[in-house]
Design a protein that fits this description.
about 750 residues; alpha/beta; 8-stranded mixed sheet; 7-stranded mixed sheet
Amino acid sequence: MTTYTNFTVETDADGIALVTWDMPGKSMNVFTGEVLDELSAILDATVADGAVKGVVFTSGKSSFSGGADLSMIKSMFSFFREEKEKSPDTAAQKLFDLVGRMTGLFRRIETSGKPWVSAINGTCMGGAFELSLACHGRVASNAKSVKIALPEVKVGIFPGAGGTQRVSRLADAQSALQMMTTGQSLTAARARAMNLVHQVVEPDQLIPAAKQMIRDGLKPVAPWDEKGFKAPGGGIWTPAAAQLWPAAPAILRRETAGNYPAALAILKCVYEGLQLPFDTALKVEQRYFTEILQTTEAFSMIRSLFISMQELGKGARRPAGIGKTALKKVGVVGAGFMGASIAYVTAASGIEVTLIDRDMEAAGKGKSVGEGLVKDSIGKGRLTQEEGAALLSRITPSADYADLRDADLVIEAVFEDREVKKAVIEAVEAVLPEGAVFASNTSTLPITGLAKNSKRPADFIGIHFFSPVEKMMLTEVILGKETGDKALAVALDYVAAIKKTPIVVNDTRGFFVNRCVLRYMAESYDMLIEGVPPAMIENAAKMAGMPVGPLALNDEVALDLSLKILKATVADLGPDAVDPRHMALVSRLVEKEGRQGRKNSKGFYDYPPKPAKKSLWPDLKTFYPQKNPAEIDIETLKSRFLVTIALEAARTVEEGIVTDPREADVGSILGFGFAPYTGGALSYIDGMGVKAFVALAERLAADYGEHFRPTALLRDMAAKGETFYGRFDPYGKVGEAA
């Protein structure tokens, strides 16, 4: 046996070398410079050793590999930036050479003259699957944990180590494009059906099956290196291709509004590559990858959706010096839909939950929400019957607060009413053990005010979930004025346990996400009042990159809740805090027309019984005189949506509500889908430059109102040529923010 830092190589009596990838100190294998060096050395050694007849490549961990390491991705951007400063004329060439490293190594494996088989035992993503595609054989375990994907497009890049060329030569072009432009995950069976793996076997048969492929005489030549190779479906110049290719860019534009350069690059790589010899096609892919790495979208998306998300998920904001809390029991008070869903995700992470409500009937109803979610998961194959039963056994309904006496953390999810919450806080604290943490899942009420009802405000914190809890990946952890470090650490340990991404914000009305969402919806009210056709409002928002139009989003949130928020704002802050035209619009919809949103099947949209689709309520356009659509500038509408949200995000930074730009960016994308291609609300500003953003905001303020006026902070940053990631550097060292 030969041992490397990250690999072991063991050759059996048949001359088959088993290469096992098992990185020390990491939960998942990832590509680093060192891994590539060792893999290159292993390739050279196996080629040189006459006793080695073939290679089986597998993982020593429960997953195969997640692809490239954070540091490797970061280094590409910092390398290019440094090279551009040193020698701008050759920087792109040097980046091209750097990104070709994996491509070249994988091609050497493919043309080594000895058969390689990839034995995929778990999650196999990105570069790891590209490595597998360069092997001559691929065997996957049929375990539920096997997920095969090329998800790079989701972080602003694309499979640039041969992925676009190999997938499109193994699967038909339409399936290949679908897989790569969406980044979808495939089961082993689906990958087999697409011809991306050769065999799917029981987990204990994985290595024997892979070795058997070599014993059976697996040819060490890729199909595209054989004479007369034709891509599935016949390639580009066929009647079928004549139907696919003219439509493909149009379909992509419909889905992405042209906001994702990497997705279009995938189409170009496949279309051009299939017309070329394989090695030339790899060069085309390498050139496009080099080009995409230089885009603002790639830089911003990788920073927020890959690097920052991982850093926040691993506890970047967790106070130092406080031991990790292994939560054994969590109490949830309030068994309505929100509380029941919180109980479900907590139990799903293996933690015991006591679900409290006013009586056993109400608490039992809450558990039945979990039962419905379990049934749905079993139906979709995500859980087995046994796993579902075990999950539900961890949820104990109760009407007795005394059952919380051994809880590590209690989350209240009762009605948004200060008096109701006060009663719950007092009842819980009467039994809660010393050192346990109390968290409020409030969406609007400031935590500091609620903590005044607590005898131990240092252990009082906000954990704001988003609905539907089981799908939404974000939680806002809100610090009251007296919240202590221990409470923050426990809250972040809990969020990590339920596998969600936290952002930590200081206390304010609406916290971070809701403040931004309300600005998005308020802008749509302004547009309606101006006479912009409702369909145009929704389409402009989607073209700007928002996943859901503001009117549809408002229906999901509920219009009567919007009215309640407007009235509460007036009650707390006075009549000037709300635009009276907005109040008139929403109160007319709710109180006069009886339209509450999706929940009563009528809001800005009508919701007919399924399978009919929702459609905008026709009478909406009679509320205000309608403008001629031809006279409305769609680019201005798009800018208004993005700028009003970004301005609100900037205000939260100026007010000290958000102190880390990573959290504003990740929170805006995960919380309400802020145009992901921008990298988030602050990256949107940094990406265009603060000076350009301030100029754009000033133009919009002149035409559409003072709420677009840039703040003092933004004007100061524009004058100094600063960025949010420079001025509020989350790494404590300017320059590392990339």
